[in-house]
Amino acid sequence: MSHLNVHGITHLRHVDLAVPDYATQRTFYRDTWGLTEVGTDGDLSFLAAEGSPEQYIVRLRKADEKRLDLIAFGATDPAAVDALAAKLGAEGVQLVGQPGTLQTAGGGYGFRFFDLDGRTIEISSGVETRKHRAVEEGEAIPVRISHAVMNSNDPTATKDWYEKYLGFKLSDTLWSAHMGEMMHFMRCNDWHHSLAIARGPHTSVHHVSFEMRGLDEYMRGTGRVMRAGIKKIWGPGRHLAGNNTFTYFLDPSGNTMEYTTELERLETDQWHPTLYDIADPQTQDQWGTADPMSEIIAKDSFNTPDRGLFVAPPV
Questions:
Q1: Mind listing the UniProt keywords for this protein, alphabetically (predicted)?
Q2: What residues are paired with 187 via a beta bridge?
Q3: pLDDT tens digits for 28-70?
Q4: Dist. CA 111–CA 175, nearest whole Å
Q5: Do residues 48 and 57 make contact, with C-beta atoms less than 8 angstroms apart?
Q6: What pLDDT does 1 receive?
Q7: Domains of the chain with CATH codes
Q8: Is residue 105 very low, low, confident or very high in pLDDT (cuts 50, 70, 90)?
């Protein structure tokens, strides 16, 4: 069965964040979160995961205002990039620029555009891979970036946009009797989700998730971050949709970051999305080790309204 995205989108590459507390954030992602700073360029820091062939999975930019700079996805080849850019342009999606050679580490060929809510999205192919290694037993550092979850005040409209324009497929939905559809999990390959859209009061980053080697490494990493005095929002636990483990923390600038492991890979394309009721404790946490989801917990991941909507980042 083919899991290939109809437009040749292959995977999540990196999430780029602008932060006022740049020095603090660099230290957090290197020393506490366990990423490797592979380079800096002026006010930019590029952070890789030891287990991932991606040049970097997080980019930090020193800025006066906190914002999401962009979310980058890979594509199969330059032809797929060109075809998608032409399609989006013809359908009235606002492009930031035409496809061309990327100026970032590893080069590549790609373009940027605004999604329905005004986030900058980049699609690229041919980015050089980085020399990486197998993360060892007991080594509690991220293996790769797993997924990005974004807040939207109309998550169903945003989900529909990603289906229509970018060919993402719906894996599952979380639902509440009071609030309706709360989160849509979307895939572009056989991972249960690379992107999810959550219901929030405004457009912002909900969380970015990092895959650990296994359960032991996930727990060791959770403990290390807790011991470092970083605010733990929720976890450890295991979700029902995606079957993945979770521990959520607030990074120093108020973005939520997650350690996860064992995210489900879909065996078949004939996948039927399930509507899970978030009132069921099993939906939130199959283990029962995490505190029940509450408005207090949820509020932490609402984040502050994104200041960068429909404004392309400077780099």
A1: Dioxygenase, Oxidoreductase
A2: 169
A3: 999 999 999 999 999 999 999 999 999 999 999 999 999 999 9
A4: 34
A5: yes
A6: 43
A7: 9-125 (3.10.180.10), 144-300 (3.10.180.10)
A8: confident
